[in-house]
Amino acid sequence: MITLLTTPADRELVITRTFDAPVERVWEAWTRPEHVREWYGVSGLTMSICEIDLRPGGTWRWGQRTPEGQEIVFSGTYEEIVPAERLVYTETFEQMPGPEPVRVILAFDATPDGGTALTSTSFWPTTEIRDQALAAGMETGVREQYDRLAEYLRAM
Q: Which of 58, 76, 108, 123 is the Cys-Cys partner for 90 at CB 3.0 to 4.6 Å?
């Protein structure tokens, strides 16, 4: 399956991927720490932090450590939770916090063949910040992470 990143509007980034797993399994893999630890991030890094308080107003914090010991941590707050359907949250890259967090809407849609179409629509503080993240290699990292999630879902 292909992970597609598009920039349909200023400040917007849409990531789409279809997974060969039912919506409930993809939701569980995305919202339970014991599962997130197994697929999040990129290979070569170690998952060092995985905290999820899955409720409106609850926070999340996911981080990886490089072989040199550098922490790469993302965190945010859950705004809306519709189980196995929609997750709305903020996201901040703690090592380079922007003027405001990115707002993400994650949609979990069942496909006719029993899979899940996952669509992440993020709204960035500025077009420049979004474009800097893309230029820094975000697309490669997202593709690898979604490939890791697909592999984990097969084994789950």
A: 76
pTM: 0.94
CATH class of 4-151: alpha beta
Residue boundaries of the structural domains of the chain: 4-151
The b/e string for 89-113 (b: 16+ C-beta within 10 A; e otherwise) is bbbbbeeeebeebbbbbbbbeeeee
**pLDDT tens digits, one per residue of 55-107:** 999 999 999 999 999 999 999 999 999 999 999 999 999 988 778 999 999 99
Cα maximum dimension of the chain: 45
Query: Contact at 8 Å (CB) between 101 and 92?
Result: yes
Which residues lie across from 65 on neighbouring strands?
46, 71
CA distance readout (Å), 147 to 48, 105, 131: 20, 20, 23
Give the integer Cα–Cα distance in Å for 29 and 87: 13
Instruction: Give the Cα separation of 91 and 85 in Å (integer).
Output: 19
List CB contacts of 82: < 8 A, sequence separation 6 or more.
none
